[in-house]
Design goal:
Two copies of one chain form a homodimer. Chain A has four helices and seven strands; from the N terminus they run βααββββββαα. In chain A, α1 packs across α2. Chain A is of the alpha+beta class. At the A-B interface, β4 of A face β4 of B.
């Protein structure tokens, strides 16, 4: 069954893209293995204190981010699409088992689409965060989407480029 | 890939079940073919003025309900799981393409799990509506979940029992 390709909406989406000098399989591993996710997902000096992954539609994707002074943010959502080494779709709008999430951190709902396309010996990597509308996208941008995901991306590149 | 079985939570779920004297394939058809959905989905004297279905994860499930005096309610969501003749999962928390829905009718978010299990020559049919929590489930119950889905079920039974 071919899943629907999410429709981009520039007003309601935030995106970043990069060609990474590592094959898709390696970038995919960094997204789907909790021990690897913990090494890049949260921009320093924050850290990923906990990561739980059940990689299938409806399965948990949970990260607990911890700040330098101890505050924690629990991001619990679930996967919607899992296409090995090519595409991940995950949302915070639904909890594991697809139950609607009634307590979103910062009241911010989004679905993230991550693609991993082979490009030469590397990977064309894209992240698109889809929001209900332009207002929510702006709020996410104001909260530091580009800085945060950008810094995490640098950490991801560093991790997958090693050895 | 085996999807996660949604975890029931009696406090946050509303459910109904019935053994229907028609095979799963027939009940499944009534749920997945727009012309058939329009014949049972909305309790009279309301009607389903419009139904649109793209039966795959992320695909649209839209019904527009019209009251006798003309008011319309647009329910647009998407499918999350499609297991032919056995199970459907659909949510109003996400729009087609998995974008979070920022304008839920009545502000009510839920995910519905519908199962169709063979039982003798018939079908054990269940509907479970999962809510973010007990308060939302109570509000859905107060809005007439049992009466509405119950009346629709009678219409469904009448439709699939014919010929």
């Amino acid at each position: 069954m071919i899943p629907t390709t999410p429709k981009p909406d520039p007003a309601a989406d935030l995106a970043l893209a990069r060609v990474i000098a590592a094959p898709p399989e390696r970038v995919w591993a960094a997204w789907t293995q909790p021990d690897l996710v913990k090494r890049w997902f949260t921009p320093k000096p924050w850290e990923t204190a906990h990561c739980e992954i059940d990689l299938r539609p409806g399965g948990i994707f949970r990260t607990v981010l911890r700040g330098p002074d101890g505050p924690e943010v629990d991001n619990t959502g679930c996967w919607l699409e899992v296409v090995p080494n090519r595409r991940l779709v995950w949302t915070v709008a639904l909890l594991p088992g697809f139950r609607p999430n009634g307590s979103l951190p910062h009241g911010l709902s989004f679905t993230a689409v991550i693609t991993f396309e082979p490009e030469g010996a590397g990977t064309r990597y894209t992240v698109t965060a889809m929001h209900p509308g332009a207002e929510a996208a702006k709020r996410h941008a104001d909260m530091g989407f580009h800085e945060g995901w950008g810094a995490a991306l640098e950490q991801l590149v560093e991790l997958v480029s090693k050895g």
